[in-house]
Fold:
Amino acid sequence: MKVDLGIWNSIFSVPTCIVDDHIIKSGSAQLKVLLYLLRYPGRDVPVEEIAQNLSLSCADVSDSLNYWICEGVILDNNINNINNIAIPTFKVIETEKQDDLDSTSSPALDKLKIINESSQDLSLKTTKKFSSSPGMAPRLTIKESLERIQSDENLKFLMNEIPKILKRSLSTTDIVVIVSFLDWTGIDVDLALMLINYCASTDRVSAKSIEKEAYLWADQGINTHEKAEDFIRENLNLIKVQQEVIYALHKSYLTIREKAFVKKWVLDFKYNIDMIKLAYETGMTRKGEKDFSYVNGILLSWYKKGIKKPEEVRDENGVEAISEKITKIKNKKNSNQALKAEALTSFSLEDLKAKIKN
Structure:
């Protein structure tokens, strides 16, 4: 008698960590590539074969494989150069076998063992220079980047955290860019986490934008937690005020020039949205002028006089606070409009009564 298990006659195992740790943060291409490797354990699987059978490009397969490398699931056996891209050829081997599940036994992969014969005796040196110019930073190769990740537990931890922060997987280019600027600037892992979280909070999730911010930090000497916290707090407040300016001044967006003015008012003058609105309304009241350069002149004048609050602002004669004056003008304007509306309503009713009588 024979039990026909159907499709269960031929099965292979998947490590539990793939579901527990990667099912959400990994992409569909990455999962497809890994499943393909698990389907053929113990043999070299060329990148071209994976790409052809999964209808993916070699670059996509390479990115997917490098994701699993960074996660410590697999590692390249040797490096081939295909289309000027460093693409590894991988070998997945089984290290342990489960007990037979039934009469139809199948080898199981409890885990994937890392293989890297080419880098066993490689001595890694971290540059640890502190440069503010991205053009000065040499780009590591993907092989060098992966070797640095594998040799540094802190860096490996960081590279595992980045996809969670950015809510996307890392491509080969991402890995090279991130490891290269970390290697060149010498930013430690804790500071790098603050940097990347800050970039993500401002919707800058590309590796190039994070790199640009990293060199800005290096240029400004932001190399401690305290300095990073101060910088992040100031700049998040700046972004908040920029949004408030857009809303308060009824603008759809701010130009680069206008953003520069707002940055000066917030970071240099330490003014909030109330002072900026007051200066804008003052310009409109005096000359009907709403250009930011005119508003800047008003705020600069107040800043030089040590004026910090709207209540401290006085008109030319020093008699009445401009904020109060502007409020009175607005109230008078609203009152006139209300009187006109009331007169119009009264006239309409009287006119209607007269017509009814006639």
Remarks:
- The beta strands are 44-45, 76-82, 85-91.
- Residues 78-132 have pLDDT under 50 and may be disordered.
- Residues 120 and 160 are 23 Å apart (CA to CA).
- The two ends are 110 Å apart (CA to CA).
